[in-house]
Amino acid sequence: MKKQFHILLISLVAAFGGLLFGFDIAVFSGTIPFIQPYYDLSNAQLGWTGSSLYVGCFIGSLITGVLTDRFGRKPPLIVAAFIFAVSSLMMGWASSYESLIAWRILAGVAVGAASILSPLYIAEVSPAAIRGRMVSVNQLTIVIGILLAYLSNYLLAGVEDNWRWMFSSGAIPAALFFICVFFVPESPRWLFSKGHTAEAMKVLAEISGPDEMQREVAQIEKTLHAEKGSFRDLWKKGVRYVVILGIVIAVFQQISGANAVFFYAPIIFEKAGMNVADQLFQQILIGATNLVFTLVAMRLVDRWGRKKLMQGGSLLMAGWLLVIGLCYYFNFFSGYWLTGFVMAFIATYATTLAPVTWVLISEIFPTKVRGMAMAVATAMLWAACFALAYGFPVLIAALTPHETFFLFAGICFVYFLILKRYVPETGNKTLEEIEMAMAVH
């Protein structure tokens, strides 16, 4: 029990990156009613302002994949924390629209780095029996970050220069993350891969205990005899299939429709006739629902398994999106039905695709290329996120709202079919057992 608490503490520190990840992607949504008229932005310009963060995410995820395999997991986490703090302040007090975009791109570099480093680090320090729950801690902190952004936006909406303070508020948790990350150990699996055996065994003994340490050392040694991985190795037989699968899993999480709600809830609820105050309050409800059902997911991910949660979630999300689209088609906005259906959709996403995606892509890749493979998959995730963030304001203006939600419903159903056919179950297996099982493809 003491060891599990130690692992939880380490995971919580690493997952601070997830909290800032969630804060940075969500804070923009609250600035929309104020920043759009401030800079007189068109729908396309609004899409670029929101999506510019994900240009940085794409760059950051690729750079981090190289850095984390060369320098370890801990040093890039420290750099990401520093960038989070500086970029939050500079976005808030940008002197021009161009400088705001530049700082959003730099903030995205930190988000992209954290999206790889936090789940990767947690997966590598956690024993198999609790790894799903521990990696889900990262998703928990992401949704806490999202909720904190929504609360901050709501509370700051009435102050002068509100959108500037909304952006700047992210510097507070970023500074705390920067301090705490100095106190976590390096990943034992990375230490083994670099030949630092004594240090790796010391870390494993501290977090797993001597008995579990010997078992994990034996498993790790089986998979570290191969030569050092390179980007070319990602396309070798036995690895290429897993990389493509990881990309598909990552991309479909982003285009499922949930992030359209997180990023552009004010636009969605404005289409239903709500005023600005109601739009921002709806975001708090979305964030709270997201948090509660992420806690549910942490109870289920190791008990029910990854594949079952992902399949059920994608199918149920398709159903909720269809119902939301019908609300817009029939102008059914009386009472709280639309809000209830949106909350049900977010609850399903928070219980399934949101946390389990990160668990899966931190588990399925071979050890020698795990950092690079996660970088590629995560870069594709951010490319999809950019396309969604940039295109949604234009899409919902070009199509009708119901057509937009019907489109997302179709995407979720296609993903259900892919999950059923191609995605393996990885629950309650060591990373090395998963690697050996995936090597048959």
TrEMBL record:
Main localisation: membrane
Domain of life: Bacteria
GO CC terms in record: plasma membrane
Record's signal peptide: none
Gene3D superfamilies named in the record: MFS general substrate transporter like domains (1.20.1250.20)
Domain Major facilitator superfamily (MFS) profile, residue spans: 10-427
GO molecular function, one term: transmembrane transporter activity
InterPro entries: MFS_dom, MFS_sugar_transport-like, MFS_trans_sf, Myo-inositol_Transporter, Sugar/inositol_transpt, Sugar_transporter_CS
The protein's name: MFS transporter
Species: Chitinophaga lutea
